[in-house]
């Protein structure tokens, strides 16, 4: 068994929800275990739950560092290291966990699991969203990152169904279509507002102000774009190609019109030397600030 398959097998076994929902994992009656021994088993299980939550959170944070082709390689190395640490942690605690689940009553296992359920769900949702985001961006063209995402999905750490199956439920499809339409409507509205502000530039003061707005817009847009569709897929499921094409056909003319208007405004501002504003010139050319 190669390292990836071993890691997948171990992490599948590490799924706490699986342990929680499998009848017979823990004893159904109170075991004849001394109180101190029982407390030790409870501490072992609780420490394991907390440790897995911490590792999943760390993995999500590492993946979050991949935002483009330039950052993908560093993020892939960090995430791969974190993923290996998760495997090592689970491997080292596995014997104690197996014993704890055998010796502890179901009621105590459930109580420990319930105490950390919200934190676990938060960590898993964060990991889910990062994996979806990177998949939607084709791992930013980074092969090691793409392989890592495949391994994470295979491990069972996140809901595989959302990732591999196109959405077919009519009600969910309708909700997803509404969410996608709302996203593009808001984005185009914000872009049109920005273009109107650029069109109203008449001196250096308004030019500098517009430059700041342009930078803010593109910064916020990049952050929104990175998470918006991942959130939609996480909530509703993967959109079929027919829905993606429908939305694109609906909004592409408006996007093209915004692009045309932007090019025309830039040409007019070039003729005025951007009203003496170097910041406006840099912002329109997407150059870094001074």
UniProtKB/TrEMBL annotation:
<keyword id="KW-0732">Signal</keyword>
<feature type="signal peptide">
    <location>
        <begin position="1"/>
        <end position="19"/>
    </location>
</feature>
<feature type="region of interest" description="Disordered">
    <location>
        <begin position="21"/>
        <end position="40"/>
    </location>
</feature>
<protein>
    <submittedName>
        <fullName>Uncharacterized protein</fullName>
    </submittedName>
</protein>
